[in-house]
Amino acid sequence: MKTTWCLAVCCLTLLWAPSAGSAQESWSPAQQEVLAAIERLSASTAPGGAGADAYGAVLADDFSRWTIGSDLVNGKEDWVEGVREWFEDGWRVSDRDTRHLEIVVRDDHAFTRRVVEETYLGPEGERSTATAALAEVWVREDGEWRLLRVDVRPVDSP
């Protein structure tokens, strides 16, 4: 009887407790400013987006990007040049689904966690999809949020 009661309490706790991976239901004004910066970054690579220069404008000068497990860390110049080449080759992000898990704002720093699934559209209509978990550090510079660091963990698409 005691085991059955414990299992019932555990199951009910799991059902009623918020999921550790669930996103917040509402965002503060400070968090919304960070979300707007994320949107500017994302919009630059969409169809009709402004491309690499607009993308680079949202990055801090000492930006770095690391794919977890890789030995390569990209700085701003190299990363923006890669985005430029990709854009000039005719590629765009045709669809993006973002789950914002967490945004913590501390003065002029913001720390985000999100999962992004993107569908890429090539110049000849080819498509591919990738999903990644991102941990980011944003800094406020001259009144604007800029992406300083991003750690990327590719994950299997659902």
Count, helices = 4
Name the CATH architecture.
Roll
For the CA atoms, what is the radius of gyration? Answer: 19 Å
Q: How much β-strand is present in the residues?
A: 35-45%
Strand order of the largest sheet: 2-1-6-5-4-3
What is the CATH T-level topology? Answer: Nuclear Transport Factor 2, Chain: A
**Portion of residues in helices?**
25-40%
Give the biggest sheet: 6 strands, mixed
Mean pLDDT: 87
Distance between the termini: 39 Å
- Give the CA-based shape: globular
Going by helix content, strand content and strand pairing, the class is alpha+beta
What string gives the helices and strands in order?
HHHEEHEEEE
List how many beta strands DSSP finds.
6
Class in CATH? Alpha Beta
Low-confidence stretches: 1-22
| Count of domain modules | 1
Description:
Helices cover 31% and strands 42% of the residues. The radius of gyration is 19 Å and the shape is globular. A 6-stranded mixed sheet has the order 2-1-6-5-4-3. The longest helix is centred in the N-terminal third of the chain and has 15 residues, at 2-16. Mean pLDDT is 87; it is low at 1-22. The protein is of the alpha+beta class and 158 residues long. The protein has one domain (26-155): Roll (Nuclear Transport Factor 2, Chain: A), CATH 3.10.450.50. Strand 3 (92-106) and strand 4 (109-121) form a beta hairpin. The protein is built from 4 helices and 6 strands; from the N terminus they run H-H-H-E-E-H-E-E-E-E. 13% of the residues are buried.
